[in-house]
Amino acid sequence: MARLLRSLLFVPGNNSRFLEKAKSLQADIVCFDLEDSVPLVEKKSARNLIKNALKNRSEYHSEIYVRTNSPVSGLIPDDLLDIIQKGVDGIVIPKVNTVNEIKKIEKIMLGLEKKRKLKSIEIIASIESSEGVVNAYLIASCSKRISALVFGVFDLLNDLGVEYTKKPEGAAYSRAKIPVDARAAGKYAIDAIWQDLDDVAGLEQDSLVAKNLGYAGKSIIHPNQVDTVHKVFYPTSAEIEWAKKVVSAYDVAKKNKKGATTIDGKMIDEVHYKRAISLLNSAK
Length: 284
Hints:
Helices cover 46% and strands 16% of the residues. It has twelve helices and ten strands. β2 (29-33), α2 and β3 (63-67) form a beta-alpha-beta unit. It starts with 6 loop residues before the first strand and ends with a helix.
């Protein structure tokens, strides 16, 4: 699984200055947010800002995702109508509880992709409730589109009726379960955010805990957190070797004028090649 998912940086979708600044950021994924950081009255405006930002996709260094609103909000169809377009690499769906929620969203995405002649767009599902934790493996394995699960600690604790602390005991089981379920489904897991922007040592320690639980990276809320998280989630030797295999095999495929090849029975194309190059560059 040759891919860098060390950092998933959320950027408010209703702030044009932040969207512009994101062009220079070095996070592995920059995620334009339509959910928690955007008030209801600004959702439409945020969609338009994000739509315009996606038209300038080539100016961004990171992979570009968009976090939609939650399945229960009723806003996802409107979100997808504007953001499923050329320039978006994937979407993050918050507060996923069941497989059926993913299937409904996937049906809408497929229709828009066919109409707009787009490749299949990835999904990262965010697990933020007790129901979602129980169903995490089923959610991770229900679609080839799903590349990762995200752990959402704050909404989970709220669901459990537990106050947040920097070491929330009430979230320990759920935090440990999600990467196990993700890995069993052949997917990645990304840890929850660290809220205290001034506590860099705490962020580093929390990232180490996440790495030792099997997470590939961490959600972050400020560009200043990128370097700390990247230092902790350095590519493993297995990831580096896989990336080398991808680059070698795809270079041969290109010489033979092929757009794809296979490694260990898995299809490899241009997007895998670019991710492998990025991972090897990071390892240097």
